[in-house]
Design brief:
CATH architecture of the largest domain: Sandwich
Protein name: Late embryogenesis abundant protein LEA-2 subgroup domain-containing protein
Organism: Lactuca saligna (Willowleaf lettuce)
Helix content: 10-25%
Distance between the termini: 88 Å
GO biological process, one term: defense response to other organism
Oligomer: single chain
Transmembrane segments: 27-49
Domain Late embryogenesis abundant protein LEA-2 subgroup: 82-176
CATH class of the largest domain: Mainly Beta
Length: 183
Amino acid sequence: MSQINEKSPQHCAKKKLININKNHKKLFYTFTTFILSILLLILVIWFILHPSKPQFSLKEADIYQLTLSKSHLLNSSIQTTLLSNNPNQKVGIYYDEIQVYASYKGQQITLDSSVPPFYQDCKDSNLLSMVLVANGLPVDPSFGYEVGRDQMVGRLVLSIKANGELRWKVGTWVSGRSKKDKI
C-alpha cells in the first residue's frame, strides 16, 4: 500500500494566515460601532429637523430710471420689496452677506445692493426693501433694442436675484456659514 500525502482540513486551520489578536478585534469592532452610531445619530437629527432653504417672493418693484446712453452705458434705479419666509418649524436662519441685484434677459442691470445681516425665527416672515442702482454700467449693444421692443409691447420682464450666506440655528447650536449660493 502507498502512503497518502494529503493533509486534512484541520491541518489548514492551524496555519493562521491572518493573525489578529482578540484585543485588536474588540478594539476594531468598538471603534466601528462608535463611528456608525455617531453617523446614524447625525442622520436621524437631520431627518427630524430637515432644514430647507428660505423662500423669497417679490412684493413690489418700481422702476424710477432706466436710460441708455449712446455709448451703451446704462443708468438705472429700481426700488424693490422682497418677502423672506422661513418655512422651517424648528430651525432659525441667520442671513449673512446677502447681495441683491436686478437683471434683464440674463444681463445684470444694477450693481449689488447689500442687505444688513439679520435673524429669522421659525415660521417667520420679513420684508426687505432696497434700492438697486447703476450709473454708467456697460451693457450689450443689443440691450437698447431689446428694451425698446419690450416697452412697445408694454411688458418689461426683470429678474431680481439674491446671493448670500446662511447659518442655521437649532436650539442654542448655530451652524457654520454655508457657501455663497443663490437664495
